[in-house]
Amino acid sequence: MHESLTITLLQARETAMGFFRPILNRHNLTEQQWRIIRILAQYRSLDFHAIAREACILRPSLTGILTRLERDGLVFRLKPLNDQRKLFASLTPQGAALYQHACSEIEEGYQQIEQQFGQEKMTQLKALLLEFNALAKNPPADTDDQGPADGRRIRR
Fold it and tell me: Does residue 148 fall inside a structural domain?
């Protein structure tokens, strides 16, 4: 019997988050909120669909998370005058300051991981995960497995 790739990946995520959850808790942030703040710090302003995709958050959940971030003064939303169907979000100055403050602590978490796991292994792991994630952009066409309901094809 093969070990489950998905379970192993989830366990690895939990191991990694063990280094960062205490930091997020000190800043009263959920993991999803931090992902959004981090992404908005990187891109400055993104539309709702891009945030959902980049943060790996379902759109219905994203609405509530953005509402809470806006209520807490960390994010503001805006609709372009030329297209009222679109919704963009950006960090407020308070959100940007929180990001900058938390980043130094987050960096310490990365340093702890690297100390325990090794710089070379971390480099290899990141490269392998990037390569693996690229499969989603170019799924194999020669599989006979049935994919999820959305039509994507998967392999075991």
Answer: no
Is residue 79 in a domain? yes
Give the model confidence (pLDDT) of 107-136 as tens digits. 999 999 999 999 999 999 999 999 998 988
1 pLDDT tier (thresholds 50, 70, 90): low
Containing structural domain, residue 109? 5-134
Single-letter residue type at 50 = A
**CA 77/CA 84 separation, integer angstroms:** 12
Helix (H, G, I), strand (E, B) or coil at 64: helix
Question: What is the total count of domains within the chain?
Answer: 1
- Listed as own residue / partner, the contacts of 130-139 with beta carbons closer than 8 Å and 24 or more positions apart are none
Whole-model pTM over 0.85: no
User: Which residue's structure tokens are 């891009």?
Assistant: 50
In a domain? residue 110: yes
Sheet of 45-47: strand order equals: 45-47, 88-91, 75-78
